[in-house]
């Protein structure tokens, strides 16, 4: 089952040796054969939020919600189940500063 590990409330710059530690985490996910995708995101002040209400498109600069724990990046992993996803989130170095939200990916066939 695929899970998204969403990284909240931390910036790589705040973690000592961030690049090396995140790169080691990435290599661990690859070695276990669970890595599907992952990317860091730019800071929340670069976000644009789009809403459509009554056929009107509303565009707002910034993230949807004001929060100090904004989404900072993600990993998609293919795990045997939630227990493995929890274990992978717990060894992510970014969990030391913020939080990792785990969500199963809903498998839907489009097209």
UniProtKB/TrEMBL annotation:
SUPFAM superfamilies: Dimeric alpha+beta barrel (SSF54909). InterPro entries: Dimeric_a/b-barrel, YCII. Gene3D superfamilies: Dimeric alpha+beta barrel. Residues 1-107 form the YCII-related domain. Belongs to the YciI family. This is YCII-related domain-containing protein. It comes from Actinocrispum wychmicini. The lineage of its organism: Bacteria, Bacillati, Actinomycetota, Actinomycetes, Pseudonocardiales.
